[in-house]
## 1
Amino acid sequence: MKAEKNFIDYGIYIDRKHAYIVMLNHVIHEALIKEEVVDNTGVLPRSTKINLQQIHLQNDRNEQLKKFCKLVMDKLENAHSLLIFGPSVTKFELQKEIRNSRMLKHVTEKLLVTDTMNKEAAIRFAQDNYKTITVGQQTFTAAKMR
């Protein structure tokens, strides 16, 4: 007999320096990852003389970004759907890593570009994008249709 899993909807605010993970299932919880991330917008100049040091720096930034995305993904237990939002391009890398992950392949995600938010604003934003449904004595969350 298989154990029943409680699938969880998440809101993930992510910017260059941190991520707020809002877990929506009966009660709202949030986890904060304070991991310094270098924004991946440092594009190498178009020049015939590419500096080897710049290439190494870009590779280091890409590795840091991937590690940060993996840290966020490790927090997403029993994920059902994800709302990924924030001002930075980091959210696109997170979306790419989620789509490449075997564990999160079944998860649906929605990506929104937003302004910079503090923790409380991110929690409210995630709550506002999900609605609570009560069936009998059980409470569920569902993504709002727009």
## 2
Amino acid sequence: MKMNIIKKLPSTEEIIQRFPLSEKACEQIEKDKQEIKDILAGRDGRIFLVVGPCSAWPMEATLEYAKRLKKLSEEVGDKIKLILRVYIQKPRTRKGWTGPAIQPDPFSSPDIEEGITYCRKLMVKAIELGMPIADEALFTHNAKGFLELLSWVAIGARSSEDQEHRIFASAIDAAVGMKNPTYGALDIAVNSIVAAQGSHTAVFDGNQVETSGNDYAHLVLRGGVDGPNYHIEHIIQAKNLMEEHNVKNPSVVIDASHDNCRISGKKTLERQIQVVHEVVSNLKDFPELRSIVKGFMIESFLKDGNQSVNVDKPEEIDLDGMSITDPCLGWEKTEKLIRELATKL
């Protein structure tokens, strides 16, 4: 193969031993995973909200966000289950920073050993603060050390058609949100759910295995190249497709970001607020769809907007909670939105 070996990485077990979870945190993860499954199955009448930075960097600002979200969750938890986005790997349409798991210092060369250390440490700290966490399963081969920490998992728009990711989703013991592809096709997205809910024979860690299937694989509507897909007609289409394919626990989560918040091709961060309010308002007119819409995804950080990384001027970067990838809602707007959402449910 055309590659150069840079260095031997530490084993996953070594990384886990460096940053172990307390027994209380392990129990909390299992509780959080079950509560999310109960929401998807209709046993719990709340919705869940996957909210947080587009990218989990830098650590200090991400943990400050986690502390604020934990405090807010204690106030609105009877209506909304808040789940912290801790996205450590970033899919890129072309090229770009691929997240702290690969390059924990955007101003230095990629260092996966340091990245693994950074991400495990951050995730453990966030969980020990009391927050359930979510991440996107971008690379399936290095999931150990992270996957067991997650209460909710996303399969992204660029991955949901991939057979390996579908099989991976079918083996996960947490609810998995399957995003529609970037071109927006809902039938393909539902195919992904059907595949993830089924059993598969595959190779894991050198063993032939049979996956159990994930009854809590569900649909995430994130818009597509032709525009948003969070409107009532899209939810109805998704509902009909899931019924046609006998999907278990049929559920839809609305991603208020990505192509659902673009105006004239440009992502507008405050559009996320409008998307959430519009969906909630529309559901009042279609109460039969409330049972299928189980939550939202929002990209949010301490400060509004985003910033570019100038590798030649690291001193210019804002380390106090402004995204270096997609634009995010600032904390004040996020808190206001969540409080408003709680009063409408």
## 3
Amino acid sequence: MALEDGILIWCLVVVLAFAGAQVSAESGKPDSGLLTQDRFRADFNAICAAGQKLSEGCTAIRARRLVSPANMPWRAIGRLNFASIDIRQHCTGTLVGERVVLTASHCLYSAARKRWIPPSSLTFAAGYRQGSALTAARGVRYVLDPVQDPSSRDFRAGPAQDWALVLLDSPIGREVGVLSLSDRQGGVVLAGYSALRPHVLSVAEDCGEWRMGTDWQVGLVHCSTMHGDSGAPILIETANGPKLIGVLSTLGTDSEQTVWSVAVPSTTFMPALEEMLAQ
């Protein structure tokens, strides 16, 4: 079985379980998420909140470098928040246009209620850190992969279609900056608001080289990730500064139980972004 095939079979099962960190208003504790997927295996590589050796995976998250939103590219990254009476959740998002935020499409779907979250219920907090943000704006509408139907009650896409562009009600990118896209390959990092440290932006520098799973049209890296990182940007350093080459969808394993972070490459959503920016 090809590496990409083995990973995708697993990812399609857990793509919703890896949604943005959900917190019960009653308990104030993060949803156990992947713990409900019966993934306790002696040979399972450690992921924080999945597998047998939870402490190892969580240690990797705590080891990620904390960054300040004072400088680019970190100030263009933020938390995409949703709150209702009984649910609070967040994912990570990135400004890729003055009014456009890139994230994962499953972040916009409420599995508990089996419905898509209204755009007006979304708030993007750019440069968020410990309760405050450099600036914030609300959602107006969002664009998804054509396979998705936000008028339905179902989420049917796999990782290759797990991207979304959220249009905001104000051009906050003029204030904090915008990240441009790249289709290069090479060593990358990931920046996200993990559920373990949801109030600070941390960078996973253990990702290694970006590689394409050509059969499935996804990118594969080895970043330490968990709930809350969904929608996080995969960044590569270029001569013109960091650029975004993918957006995190979920986690998966191959036949040897090696953990991979699965991402949507920039070439997938670039045409949709160019169309939005032209309007």
## 4
Amino acid sequence: MTISMYKASVPVFVKGLTNLKAILEKAAAHAQAKKIDDTVFASARLFPDMLPLTGQIQIATDFARGTTARLAGTEMPKWEDNEKTLAELIARVERTLEYVKPFTAAQLDGTEGKEITRPIRGQPKTFTGLNYLLQFALPNFYFHSTTAYAILRHNGVEIGKPDFLGSLD
């Protein structure tokens, strides 16, 4: 049995980003209802040596964007990491969805053996497309998405596992 690189990437990123956007929207509504400056949430972190919410969202969206671009052999658009508010983070997730959604199975299927070299801790690491997707890109995407969820939950936003998972259809 072969894996569809498209099905293992684009729909996964779209679902995760859609759920991440909904979580950020709940955070924005929570901040407004509680009269909390939403930059407090954007700069929140779980521990001092961890990235804040802004960094978690930026990296999660970079992985969704970069992975699809690298597998398809296209140039990933460069975006500045300058978001400071929840509205700006939501807009970044929306831009990422707009970028990722148009990729097709024809662009991604068959890239299992494609060589992808990325710097890891300052050293070049070469992956096959399949290993890059399954062992590096998706785990990183989920790590940063989960950490963003945890930051918001830790700061009192009323979200739960169903918000992270989204609809199960």
